[in-house]
Amino acid sequence: MNDKKVFHIVLVEPEIPPNTGSIARLCGATNSVLHLIHPLGFSTDDKHLKRAGLDYWKFVDIRHWESLDEFLGAQEELRLYFLTTKTNRSYLEAPFRPGDYLVFGKETKGLPEDLLARYPDRCFTLPMANPNIRSLNLAMTAGIVLYDALRRK
């Protein structure tokens, strides 16, 4: 698979197995690459993770990274886009193109503050019409952003 022709979904220290399983299934359906940044909040043998991905795991290109620093050191900065609730810039403004990495943080804390401070111009959010709703589910957010990126290519 040519990495420049597909999108990459990056999960930084995911904590909830069904979210990761659903995102793996999403990546399989779209021929996107799934990058998992360790430590994970679960075992990759978790039955909930496997059930969410059903029998599609063999069709998903999954890459594991020991740390966020290792992952970042191996990528072109200009291909990275960080999805966070800690910005006002809508993902609709992001110039996504195949080969880009859509980076999502852990469910309970999001992406590290120092990372967001290092790349403020690469941070985007999903706008929420209701100010009482902080965020959407991680798998849902990844699906919305990825399919919009695919629509643009």
What would you call the structural class? Answer: alpha/beta
| Proper CATH architecture | 3-Layer(aba) Sandwich
Count of helical regions: 5
Percent in strands: 15-25%
- Low-pLDDT runs of 5+ residues are none
Instruction: Give the assembly state of these chains.
Output: single chain
- The average pLDDT is 92
SSE series: EHEHEHEEHEH
Largest sheet: number of strands, sense, barrel closure: 6 strands, parallel
| Gyration radius over CA | 14 Å
- CATH-derived topology: Alpha/beta knot
Helix content: 25-40%
Query: What order do the strands of the largest sheet run in, or round the barrel if closed?
Result: 3-2-1-5-4-6
- What top-tier CATH class fits best? Alpha Beta
Spatial shape: globular
Explain what the structure shows.
Helix 1 packs parallel to helix 2 and helix 1 runs parallel beside helix 5. A 6-stranded parallel β-sheet has the order 3-2-1-5-4-6. It is globular. The protein has helices at residues 17-30, 47-53, 68-73, 113-118, 138-152, and strands spanning 8-12, 33-37, 61-65, 80-83, 101-104, 123-124. The two termini are 17 Å apart. It is of the alpha/beta class.
Summarize the structure.
Helix content is 31%, strand content 16%. It is α/β, with parallel strands linked by helices and 153 residues long.
List keywords for this structure.
5 helices; globular; Alpha/beta knot; 6-stranded parallel beta sheet; single chain; alpha/beta; 153 residues
Task: Tell me the layout of helices and strands.
Layout (H helix, E strand, L loop, with lengths): L7 E5 L4 H14 L2 E5 L9 H7 L7 E5 L2 H6 L6 E4 L17 E4 L8 H6 L4 E2 L13 H15 L1
Parallel strand pairs: 1-2, 1-5, 2-3, 4-5, 4-6
Helix pairs in contact: 1-2, 1-5
